[in-house]
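Board work, copied verbatim: Alpha-glucosidase/alpha-galactosidase
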Amino acid sequence: MTKITIIGAGSAFTQEIAVDILNIEGVEGGTIALVDIDADRLEIARKLVLKIIEMTGKRWDVIASVDRREVISGSRFVINQIEVGGLQTVRYEYEIPLKYGVNQCIGDTLGPGGLFKTLRTLPSWMDIVRDIEELCPDCIILNYTNPMSAVTLLTSRITEIPVVGLCHSIQNTSRQLAKYAGVPYEEMQWRAGGINHMSWFVELTHQGKDLYPVLREKIKDPDLLKKDPVRFDAMKYLGAFVSESSGHFSEYIPYYRKRQDLIDQHCSSGYNGATGFYANNWPIWRKENDEQILQKLEGKLPISLESSNEYAAIIIEAMLKNEPKVIYGNVPNEGLIHNLPQNGVVEVACMIDRNGINPCRFGELPEHLAALCRSNMAFFELAVGAVLENDKEMARHALMVDPLSAAVCSLEEISDMFEELYEAERDFIPDLR
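↓ predict structure ↓
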């Protein structure tokens, strides 16, 4: 019987992933193992998954433990969705950089927030990977934890166990583009590639017609432009639409958050780029999510059994049933995108079957788009290297090549900002030499 382990089961992802797995036709049972270091949230997740099993009529067993070694043995799939010390550090990672003029919206992938999330997350994940190697070496790792590229890159460097990083930006953005262009989603064709949160839709057509001239004409309407201000502006000048939201994307390039007038013009509200959006809202969202799950368990709110567009269950189904599917995954480059670093991680189309993840060759990105991806990949290379080599200066250098920090600060200011963050988070990250 198939065994699937979810590590970080207290995450908001668990409900969707459990529903998706239980909706796989022809897979009637198995074991879902839940792991979380927070015993209360783990118990809530266990009851929720049991409730979903009851509603679907499937014959899955659920086991749960705060000690992963008790439950992961023999897993065929391990889903990673951990969060390390985020509630305690989110204010530091927003407020300290802001003193230096580094204005973040999300701050979980690049920049000061992304760097220190990397330094917090990777050491804990390395310990988990060692247990996976010992107890379920024949599994495949499905990673949802951000920083996606950094976690997936580190995993590929320390183990031979196959890993794929999963996001929902390609699925969501392709649907948004069909809506923006006014064409049926099922009829739109596209070709996309790059890195997580910066994949580029280099081709976008409907019945053989290029949709980019259509989009450029449509964004003359200010109401449409306001719906996705950073991405539409970038499309206007760079020639392609990017996969991640305006708010996230505004942090990964040096153009939109370095002056207040630019922030006011392009980074309006919410996920479109609001200052401190994640730091100010994530603790509230987490609390509300827990409360909603409790209400669902009490029957006060409905539990939806509609499948999501996440890729985890698609991979599981394709492998178990040997029914080939295509997803977009984050995988080691190894010749997939020629003009990006070959030892890095890229996001490309992947064919899934019983043999696992089969990435598809993309070729070359337009050079200006590749250059923007390379700037982010250099940051990830240094941040991951800092953890693997226990090197404080390498971590400091990662922040120095961060596009947003470099657009705003001098090298001295970046160094001072790094030191202040490092001191503030000493309780959450290992000592670096």
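The chain has a mean pLDDT of 96.
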